[in-house]
Amino acid sequence: MGIDIIDENNYFSKNDIKYFKSVLTKSVKYLNVDKNSEIYLTFMDDMKIRLLNKEFRGIDRATDVLSFPQAGPVPNLLGDIIISFDSARRHSLKYGKGLNEEIATLIIHGILHLMGYDHKKKKDGVIMRQKEEELLNQIKTQY
Fold first, then answer.
1. Which pLDDT band holds residue 124 (cuts at 50, 70, 90)?
2. For the sheet containing 77-84, what is the strand order?
3. Percent of the chain with pLDDT strictly greater than 70
4. What are 99's strand-pairing partners?
5. What is the rounded average pLDDT of the residues 37-58?
6. What is the pLDDT of residue 139?
7. Mean of the pLDDT values across residues 23-27?
8. Domain ranges in the chain?
9. Residue 1 pLDDT level (bands cut at 50, 70, 90)
10. For residue 111, is pLDDT > 90?
């Protein structure tokens, strides 16, 4: 599994990055993704993710996570996951979770989008949320 993590503002320690790679690796393994696949994970601030959200989704506000599945000339490239550190920090405080736990949730949410899951319709949202919980529980039991 090829995993590249870009921490644009140096938010995280080496141990944090190692943990995030582990979340990615265990998630894709559990989802039976080709072990030769590549994923890019980028952390940025609300301002930058807002610009991407506006450009690619037409929504002029920050969001917590964006996923860009890749289908094209680069074999085995699963896609890009972009997470707003600012949003993750706010959510962790709001929901009483640790920051890394919230980021693990966002990573899993992003991976599921790369795998074709969506939550535009209520029924699909329920399915996606169940899959997120399943993956989170699987990852927690492996630590």
1. confident
2. 2-7, 38-44, 77-84, 65-69
3. 95
4. none
5. 96
6. 82
7. 93
8. 2-141
9. confident
10. yes
Q: How many CA atoms lie within 13 A of 121 on its CB side?
A: 4
Residue showing tokens 């506006």: 54
Count of Cβ atoms closer than 10 Å to residue 33 Cβ: 19
Please choose, from the candidates 63, 83, 5, the residue with its C-alpha nearest in 3D space to the C-alpha of residue 38: 5
Q: Any residues with CB less than 8 A from the CB of 6 and at least 6 apart, and which?
A: 40, 41, 42, 43
Structure tokens at 102: 């919230």
**How far, in Å, are 38, 78, 85, 137 from residue 75 at the CA level?**
9, 9, 29, 30
Residue with tokens 């993710």: 49
End-to-end CA distance of the chain: 19
CATH of domain 2-141: 3.40.390.30
